[in-house]
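User: Can you recover a sequence for this backbone? Please restate the input before giving your answer.

Assistant: Of course. Working from this structure:
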């Protein structure tokens, strides 16, 4: 019997991105990687904190994403925080250029996963939150948590 394939094996997630930004639209992009990078990613040794995407010369690059060096790698091991090219269609890149040129918008990597054997990154077109927006979001989450807790106690107790 054939083993069912998992659609997306999550490698890394940027939880702080949803806290710091309003994500308005997402794009799925492929990543250009070296051999030791994909091996290290499959071992789950990747971190998206402080990473960002930037458009340069009509191409999209992922900066500051940390992929740890592969343990069994030799002298040809990769640089952990090098800029990695992202693969998008030309139409999507021109759409991203238009959206990120607006004041306050940026490209933020939300998560990295492996889909059908290929490394993919989910990019979000995001607008930065102000401090009062962050506090409001936390207040809303706390209120929802309290309501859920009360409902659980009422039905189970």
């Amino acid at each position: 019997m054939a083993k069912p394939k998992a659609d997306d094996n999550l490698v890394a997630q940027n939880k702080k991105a949803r806290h710091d930004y309003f994500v308005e639209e997402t794009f799925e992009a492929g990543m250009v990687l070296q051999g030791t990078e994909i091996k290290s990613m499959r071992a789950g040794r990747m971190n998206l904190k402080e990473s960002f995407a930037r458009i340069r010369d009509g191409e999209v690059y992922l900066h500051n994403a940390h992929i740890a060096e592969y343990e069994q790698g030799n002298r040809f091991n990769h640089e952990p925080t090098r800029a990695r090219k992202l693969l998008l269609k030309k139409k999507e890149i021109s759409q991203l250029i238009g959206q990120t040129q607006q004041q306050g918008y940026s490209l933020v990597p939300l998560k990295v996963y492996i889909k059908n054997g290929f490394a993919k990154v989910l990019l979000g077109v995001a607008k930065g939150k102000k401090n009062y927006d962050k506090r409001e979001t936390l207040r809303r989450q706390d209120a929802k948590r309290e309501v859920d807790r009360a409902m659980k106690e009422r039905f189970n107790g």
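That completes the design. The longest strand covers residues 21-31.
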